[in-house]
Every structure is written in C-alpha cells, then in structure tokens.
Amino acid sequence: MCGIAGYVGARPAAPILLDSLQRLEYRGYDSCGIAVLGDAGVFVRRSVSPISEFRNEVLPAAPEGTIGLAHTRWATHGRADLANAHPLVSCDGKILVVHNGVLENAFELRDRLIAQGHRFTSETDSETIPHLLEQALAEGRTMDEAVAKLPEQLVGSYAIVAMREGHDELYLLRSGSPLVVGIGDGEYFPASDIPSFLPYAQRVIYLHENDPFAVGRKGIRRLGSGGTAAEAVPPLPQPVSLNVESVSKGSFEHFMIKEIMEQVAAIARLTDAPPPSLATAAELMRGASSVKFVGAGTSYHAGLFGQFLMGTLLHTDSEACVSSEFEFRADTLRPGSVVIAMSQSGETADTLQAVRFARDRGARVIGLVNSESSSLTRAADVVIPLRSGPELSVAATKSYTSQLVALNLLVEHLAADPTGVARTILQARDSLYELTSDSARSYMASLAHSLARHNHLLLIGRGGHYVTALEAALKIKEVAGFASQAFPGGEMKHGPLALVGEGSPVILFYDRSQLARAELAASELGTRGAAIYTVGPQPLRSSSLHIRVNDAGVATPIAQIVPMQLLAYELAKLRQLDPDHPRNLAKSVTVL
Ligand code: M6R
Predict the structure, then answer these.
(1) How many A from CA of 587 to the centre of ligand 1?
(2) Which of 348, 392, 407 for mutating ligand 1's site (highest number of atoms within 8 Å of CB)?
(3) Which residue among 22, 276, 420, 511 has the highest number of C-beta atoms inside a 10 angstrom radius?
(4) Rounded distance between C-alpha atoms, residue 297 and residue 458, angstroms
C-alpha cells in the first residue's frame, strides 16, 4: 500500500533510494518518484514506468546530494498517472512529501487550503500535506512545529517523510500506516518496512503513532518533546533479524516461484520447533465462550480452514469472518470470546480494525502472523508466529501453507488424539517435496497450456477441499487474471451447473474418504461435457488429467494448494503477466 523510503547520511542518496524502492515495489507499482537535495536545489523525477526502468533513467541524471526521499504508489485518491505520482510539493516547490495511507478529511483540507491561496497540481489526498506544512510556515511556525501540528489536522492513516529545501533533515510522522527507521553508521533510512534498507542497516527503530521525529546526519531527534532530555530520547533501536538473501530473488525469475519452492523449509521451521505460544493460545481457546477467525483474502481462507478443523477434530463451533465484514458480527462477542486474527503482513487495515472491534467488546485476541514486527503482533494478546520468512510476491503462498500448519498445530493441543493430528501434518509436509519438484512444475505448466485457451474455470471441493478450491480460485484470478470460481461440491446442482458446457474446465479436489462422492460429482459434470481435472490421491473414472496429492487426512489441503499455486504462476507467465505484480493489487492493504 505505497512504499516510502528516505535517506540521509554521507553517501549519494539517489542510488540508495532507487535500490530501496525496488525492494518496496511489492507494496504498489502504479507510479514512482524520487527527490534529492543537490547543490543546484531540489532534483525531482516521477514516472509511471516500472521501477527498474525509472532507475535506469534517473541514475545518470541524479545529483550527488546526500539527503532524499522516494515513493512507489498504490493509487487510492486520484488515477495512476504522472500528476498523482509522489513526491508531492508545496506551491513554492520547497517542501517535498511522500505519503502512505488515506486522509479521510482530504476534501475539506483541500477546500480550506485553496481558499488560503494554495494551488494543487494533483488529485491526491497526499498533496494536502506539503501545503499544510507550507501554510504553517507562512503563519510563522518552524518546520518542527509545522510537522508536530499535523496530527491535529489530519484524519485517517498516514506515514509521512517530508523534506525541505535548505534543511538537512528528513521529518517523519506516522499513524495507522507503518514507518520504521533503519539505523546505519551515521546514516538513517526511514522506510515503510525493513527489506527496503536491509543491505545498508542492521538496526531499526519502530516509530510510535503520532510521535514525530527528524533525522539528519547528526542523529535522530523527537519533535515537540517539550525540551526535557527524557522526552527527547528516541525509541531504542532493535537488531534486524532478516538477511539480504531472504528478500532477494536469488536465481529465481520471480518472488512467487521462489516462495512456492520455499514452502517445505517454511513448514519444517514450524513443525520442527513449534512456537511455545501455541500452548498459551490453546489454553485461551479451551476456556473460550466462542471462537471467531478473522482475516482477508488468503488469510480468510486460512480462517475457514480453522473453522473446518475445529468442527471436524474438536467438534466445536466457531466462525470464520472476512475482516471487512466483521463489524456486523462483532456484537455477538462477549468477554470470554476469543478472536483469532490471521495475517501475513500483520498490517491489513481491515483485520486490525476487526481486532479493535474485538478488544472493545472484551474479547481476547490470538494473532497468527508472519511479520513479527507488525501492528498485529503488538495488538494481540498471544502471537503465534508463522516463521515463513519475508513474502514479497503479492500472492500469498508460503504464508498460507504455514497458516494451515499453525492451525493444525494449535488444534493438536486441544485434540483428543494429538498424535493422529501430528501424523497428518507430517504426511502433508512430506508430500510437499514431490509437489515442489521440477517435474511437478513442468506438469503444471502443461496443464496451464491446456487451460490457457479458456476464459473461465470452476473449482470444486467439499469440507477442507472447498477451502482449497476457494484459495486456488483466488490465486488464479489474482495472478493470472483468469476468471475462476469456487463452489462446494454439493452446490453445483443448485445453480453453478448452468455454467458448464462442452469442454468447460472444472478442477475437482478430494481425498480418499470422499472418493465415492467425487466420482458422482465428476460424472454429473462429465455428462454435461466438462473437462475434469482432478486433484486427489487417485484419478477418477472421468478425469481428463490428474494431479496426484497423497492423502494426509484433514491436513491434505496443506499439500493440495501447492500445485494450484504453480498453476496460477504458469498461467500468468503464459499470459505474459508479471506474477509478482498483479494488476491493481498491492501486497499489504493498509487502508480500509
Ligand atoms: O497480509 P494479510 O494476510 O493480512 O493480507 C490479506 C490479503 O490482502 C491477502 O491474503 C491477499 O488476498 C493476497 N494477495 C492473496 O494472494
């Protein structure tokens, strides 16, 4: 949801900023821009080209200046064009701002600023910020005061890095959107997240909400601290635990395929050393009056799997809710309720809002989260880390399978037959070796070829396999831009069958316990001309192509989704789409 980066130190800022921007591209790629303070004044460039092209254009022209900021945009207010690309500037061009978030009172602010004589050049909400700062300076405030006043003026979410011509500091402010500061040796790297500055800094400061700072070569200082030494002390730097390899593609063509292939290792990290917090979380659930799973997109699907596991293994009721719909279910919560918030990023605004609804009603919150430095980690009572490592492709892959494994591990603590649960997890994990092999990949590439000429795909399954169908459909839609819909197996005859005609492709998921019903469904579809692709332990009579996934009981969906991730990836490539950067999407959706 937009990536922002800044640099201040002794080295030329432009190469570092452009490099950082490439590592932030997963957050949005509608447009990008950079500003550097050079001897001849401010150097600003913006573009709607991919960041790699932008970098090649800008590098030869950029000045040697050692302070600057940069932005990669995911459009909310205003089209994805050059006029709306950041940095945005004040009327005199001397204040430059990059912003991530959404300002809810932007129209009101804009009207007021226009009445005060400010001229806007973009349609963005963000442009109000440089004008607000300029207005405060015109009213006699210092830059420190102008920045410290912003929280009174802005309604909504914001992470802001601002720079002023003639000043050798960057000004930082955040609320509701992430902003951290990488600390190098006499250099500072404010950024939306850690991967952006990983090659340059190994310590990080997490900024608190509405706690403004300035960073310059002399250090970091808190603004508006009232002058006492204690108040002026910035938060303590923390060591960074990521390494550069974990955020680079290595020999892979895309992050998506790298992350698909990393699943065996990611799952092994969870199964070999299960997080101790699983026991605490299980204890909370044991005494809970109700359990709800919340999440968005793929994380919602993982929540549905949690609901399925609780029903089948624990014989306990629970409910999975899409985060953005949670407000309509929140009043069913009571003190004693437990909400399990699922999120790869831990920054999804809808999910964080659901957590607030839960807290306001006295519910306890368990966070199942991959990014351990995220807002969800701080908001949850108990955190179960997914440990799948940085996931940079927009499509969730390894974080999803880790979510399913973590849910199985959680249920294992509560199950009557924990050994049985543990066994199925390991069976699913072991079948991942074969499913991520080169031969599996080329098999899925051939399936992608046979599907590419269609424009609609149906995916069906029952129970946990319906969850796989939903997740596979999302992946194929998102990455390959291919219309795909999932239905519970038993629902076909209640309407969706009308979509099936001669040659219509249908993917059917099942396990051994469902063989008879799967045969029935396949024959119903086959007699109507469907081309049936099957994913299960053995082919069905009417399978036109079969993908073998060994049975692992209720844990089978952990393995079943992997060939579908590969299919989505190969389909995207066949359609000449960039799998890492699906149209209109961004990795973490930090706005409501
Ligand atoms: O970071 P989160 O898990 O909270 O993200 C939730 C969704 O935005 C995310 O799963 C999205 O649906 C993915 N792009 C799906 O591949």
Answers:
(1) 7
(2) 348
(3) 511
(4) 18
Q: What does the pLDDT look like over 168-185, one tens digit per residue?
A: 999 999 998 889 999 999
Instruction: Verify whether ligand 1 is closer than 6 Å to residue 297 (CB atom).
Output: yes
pLDDT reported for residue 29: 79
pLDDT of residue 228: 54
CATH number among 3.40.50.2000, 3.40.50.10490, 3.40.50.1240, 1.20.140.10, domain 249-416? 3.40.50.10490
Q: So what's the architecture of 3-246 in CATH?
A: 4-Layer Sandwich (3.60)
What are the boundaries of each domain within the chain? 3-246, 249-416, 433-578
Give distance in angstroms: CA of 425 to centre of ligand 1: 23
Would the CA dihedral through 331, 332, 334, 340 be positive or negative?
negative
Predicted pLDDT at 343: 97
Question: Using CA positions, which residue lies closest to atom 9 of ligand 1?
Answer: 297
Look up the CATH number of domain 433-578. Answer: 3.40.50.10490
Tokens of 525: 């579809």
The reported pLDDT for the residue numbered 241 is: 81
If 0-12 CB within 10 Å is exposed, 13-18 middle and 19+ buried, where does residue 317 land? exposed
With beta carbons less than 8 A apart as the criterion, state whether 436 and 559 touch: no
Answer yes or no: same fold for 249-416 and 433-578: yes
| Ligand 1 center to 399 CA (angstroms) | 9
Q: How far apart are CA 204 and CA 182, in angstroms?
A: 4
Q: Whose CA is nearest to atom 16 of ligand 1?
A: 395
Return the SS3 of 484. strand
Measured from the Cβ of residue 453, the count of other Cβ atoms closer than 10 Å reads 8
- Residues carrying an active site annotation: 2, 587
Q: Is residue 31 scored above 80 in pLDDT?
A: yes
Ligand 1 pocket test target in 260, 321, 345, 371 with most atoms within 8 Å of CB = 345
- For the segment 485-497, the average pLDDT, to the nearest whole number, is 92
Amino acid letter, residue 462: R
- Which amino acid residue places its CA nearest to atom 7 of ligand 1? 297
> How close is the Cα of 565 to the center of ligand 1, in Å?
14
3-state secondary structure of 130: helix
